[in-house]
Fold this sequence. Notes:
Largest sheet: none
Shape: elongated
Helix content: over 70%
Number of helices: 5
Distance between the termini: 29 Å
Amino acid sequence: MKVLIKKLYENDVVRYVFFGGCTTLVNLVSFFLFRKLGIPLNPANIASIILAILFAYVVNSKYVFQDKCENLKAHIRPFCKFISARLVSMVVEVGGVWLLVEILHMNEMAGKLFTQVIVLVMNYIFSKFFVFTTGK
């Protein structure tokens, strides 16, 4: 059993799915709370995405891709690349939620969750091949 757990942990896809799930929870829970506080759809969506992006950078850098940045200065380049990539997926997410909720009249949380699947795949590809490439 220990060997299986170790093999699973060594696989960055498995770690990404786990921490991606945690990031999705940060995104969904904060979106839900912002909406309950009466914040309009798009500002609530953007704020929840920003929180998720910050959380995702920390866990992806440290636990998923195990980037070898040893100091704050070393994190500047991957962080800028991470933000750039996440801005692309943020456009997809904001546009997708808007389309699904406002135009197609899907339930807010269902629309948000649906877009998360697309964004999760996009973000893995961006992170694996564009962002966390230093020190490997």
